[in-house]
Amino acid sequence: MAVCGGADRAIGIRKIAMEIVHGLPQPINERATALTIGAFDGVHRGHQHLISATVRRARAQSYQSAVMTFDPHPDLVLNPQSKRLYLADLEERAELIAGLGVDLLIVLPFSQEIMALDAREFMERTCKAVALRELVVGWDFALGRQREGNLTRLREIGREIGYSVHPAAQFALDGTPVSSTRIRAALSAGDVEGAANLLGRPFTVRGQIVQGDQRGRMIGFPTANLAVDRLRMLPCDGVYVCTTSRGGHRYGAVTNVGLRPTFDGTRRTVEAYLLDFVGDLYGEVLRLEFRHRLRGEQKFEGVGALVAQINRDVAAARKWLK
C-alpha cells in the first residue's frame, strides 16, 4: 500500500499564524495529515462545521489539520460567463480558516488542467504533497472530472494509496442545509441579519478608502468611499447600519449601497458615514460589518429632503446600535 509524504515549505499571507502554500509543491511536508477540500466561499457555518470536524480528527490522532481551497472559484472556470460573486475574498477566507485552528492551508489555482484530472489523478497529486491519512468531506462531496470522485470512489482510491474517508454530517438551520446559495439569497433581499445567522458572524465588506465626489462632505455627512472588488458580493441597494473598527475603537456607521439616484449616479458605490468619527481615512482599508437594513435606496426631490432623511437614518442607527 502506497503512503503519501513530503518536505517543508511555508508561504504566508498577512499576519496569519497558519502555514499557507500555493499550488501543490511535492512535497509540502512529511507530517501525517487530516485534510478537507472545498471552495469554502464565505466560510459559513456549514463550512465551519466541516473544517472543525477535520481539526478535531487531526488533534485526536496528533496529525496536522489541513484545508485545500481553490482560487479562482471553480464555477468561474467551469462557466467563464458566470456572474458568481464572492462572499469572501481569499485573504478573508484565509483569516477565517486560520481562526478555526487549521495548521495548513493549501490554495490550489483552479484551472482547465485541474478540471481535466480524474479523481485518482487528483488524489495522487494531493498525496505527493502531504502525508494524507484522513480525508474529511461533506456528505454530498465529489471531485475530479465530471465529479466522478464521489464517496464510494474516494474510498476505493484511499484503500489503494493509504488514506481513509470520513464524511461529516450535514449542517442545517431551520431544517435546511446552510449554503452559499441561501446566503446570497438573503443578501439579495437585504436581509443582512439572516445572512449573519447563516455565516455565524456579520456579513462584511472590505475596501480601500478612495476619494469620491465629496457631496457628503458638502451636505454635512462626510462619507468613506470603499473601493470594493467587482467580484465581491454586496447586499441589495439600500441604507444599512454597520459597525467597524479603527485604531482600537469601534464605530457605528450609516452605509449607503447603490447608485445615489438623487445625484443621478450611474456607478454602484459603498459609502459609509462613521458616527462620531473625525479624521481622514483616505488610503486606509476599512472593513464594514453589515448589521441591519434601515430602508431601500430612494431618490429625493432635492438636497434638503435628502439631508432630512439622512438625519433620520442616523437617529435610527444610533437607536438600533443601543
Task: Write up this protein.
The strands form 3 sheets. Strands 1-4-3-2-5-6 form a 6-stranded parallel beta sheet, sandwiched between helices. Helix 5 (119-129) packs across helix 6 (151-161). The protein folds into 2 domains: 19-173, 3-Layer(aba) Sandwich (Rossmann fold); 204-321, Elongation Factor Tu (Ef-tu), domain 3. By secondary structure, the chain is of the alpha/beta class. Mean pLDDT is 90; it is low at 1-15. It contains 10 helices and 14 strands.
- Tell me the count of domains: 2
Under CATH at level 1, the class of the largest domain stands as Alpha Beta
Q: Could you give the count of β-strands?
A: 14
CATH fold-level name of the largest domain = Rossmann fold
CATH superfamily of the largest domain: HUPs
Keywords:
322 residues, alpha/beta, Rossmann fold, Elongation Factor Tu (Ef-tu), domain 3, 2 domains, six-stranded parallel beta sheet, six-stranded antiparallel beta barrel, 14 strands, elongated
Quick rundown:
About 30% of the residues lie in helices and about 25% in strands.
Secondary structure topology:
Elements: E1 19-22, E2 32-37, H1 45-61, E3 64-70, H2 74-78, H3 90-98, E4 104-108, H4 112-116, H5 119-129, E5 131-137, H6 151-161, E6 164-167, E7 172-173, E8 176-177, H7 180-188, H8 192-199, E9 203-210, H9 215-218, E10 224-227, E11 238-246, E12 249-258, E13 269-274, E14 285-295, H10 303-321
Parallel strand pairs: 1-4, 2-3, 2-5, 3-4, 5-6
Antiparallel strand pairs: 7-8, 9-10, 9-14, 10-13, 11-12, 11-14, 12-13
